[in-house]
Amino acid sequence: MTHQAAEVAKRRTFAIISHPDAGKTTLTEKLLLTGKAIAVAGAVKSRKSDRYAISDWMAIEKQRGISITTSVMQFPYRDHIVNLLDTPGHEDFSEDTYRTLAAVDSALMVLDGGKGVELCSIALTDVCRMRDTPIVSFINKLDRNIRDPIELLDEIEAILKIKAAPITWPIGCYRDFKGVYHLADDNIIVYTANHDHHKNTKTELIEKLDSDRARAYLAEEYDNFVEQLKLVQGACHEFNQQEFLNGQLTPVFFGTALGNFGIDHVLNALVDWAPGPLARFANERTVDPVEGKFTGVVFKIQANMNPKHRDRIAFIRICSGRYRKGMKMRNVRTGKYVRISDALTFFSSEREQLEEAYAGDIIGLHNHGTIQIGDTFTEGEKLGFTGILSFAPELFRLVRLRDPLKSKQLRQCLLQLTEEGATQVFFSEGSNNIILGAVGMLQLDVIASRMKEEYKVECFYEPITVYSARRIDCRDKKKLEELSSKVIENLAIDGSGHLTYLAPTRVNLAQMEKLWPDVKFLAALERY
Ligand code: G4P
Fold it and tell me: Which residues fall in a coiled-coil region (predicted)?
């Protein structure tokens, strides 16, 4: 195996997904602790007042003086390099979540054992299913009362439409939580309550369920547990790696993130079973991760955590080749070459600037307005990676300024937020109206608060009747002029400068398509 192939084979790039409050942040922190990327857990406390994740990591960053960003974390585990991508944990999530899922090879789903499958998990697994992304499941909060585990597995199968194969099985819960039984290894991994969360405690193993030690440990629960296991083994799916890789089956683990228990089981599953960097599809061809030449795709642009510096970071998933410090890259969309000597890495235990990175890794480039979500970078080849979806907004609002003198700032900040992919903006052709499009209301609330905090622009929203925003594609200039004169009040320019038709209703859109056969009203689904 070449050096590059060996480096690629080491990588595991996954997103962590869950419904808010299931324990994603706590689990992420414990994953970093297990990966020795941080030394102390418990630094991340209640974030009820600030759910947008940025502050979650600031505390650790300050405490250790290391560079952890909100959304990408890299750490070594065993002889592997793990790239963990956070997804925003909002109830109604943004396009960002979809794109992050497009940049990973597998996902880790966290479920609250007391609640089971909740709304966000359904939406997120649906997105995973679009690409058959393999999912590892972690049922959390075993130190509390949880629902019947068999019922939880049934729920995963019925609602998420994926086979569930338990790898470990819980022995009791809440005060009686004694640990988990590993079905394949036939051993009990002992849980001790109130142990020190700040350290990686050594696990105690009891070999074989059919042993005196196991009988003594489970005491009067022993017979019941053995009975339950028979049922589980009879009724549940067995783990099958191929089905897992096809996205048809999820291995299920039980534990408690707060109690730092079960985390290593999940990490082992990701390392042992989840795929390494997969081939990626471009319009021109399929790109193999071990190809010699560098290629990558921008899946996210984020305003820096430091509001004083208005720089933005473009996150690139490396699809093939090797990033070397100082290398020249071509942004295929603009055709321009740039020399990159200051790419950021998200290796949380080291501060050094990135020297090299391989397929599966995420690097960050400083963006001064020249990089867009979906951009492909290569060493020269003309390639366009597909799959970084741009979803059609479903919710539209008119933006109104509280201080009318700030209209220039409003325009500027909305263009930047659009570039980040945080929202979609439309500047009306027939009036001075500015319209925002989003996937959900919360996304618009976040935009309003970011405008206020980061750009000092205060605004409010008013309803507007828009059913769908459609990009207009028409080669015939005359027809286009005719259209403009007839429906100017429904036309707008979107954030990337495209002429867009804002259809007030479904019926109207259908009529327009019929009346203007030479004009295409394109639904925004995929950028390239
Ligand atoms: P999220 O990122 O998915 O939204 O969840 P987060 O980790 O913030 O966890 C949500 C709440 O659940 C937190 O409590 C957290 O402490 C708690 N939690 C997470 N894992 C476990 C677990 O294994 N057992 C128990 N008992 N609780 C768990 P909180 O009250 O909202 O905040 P805090 O004051 O405890 O930090």
Answer: none
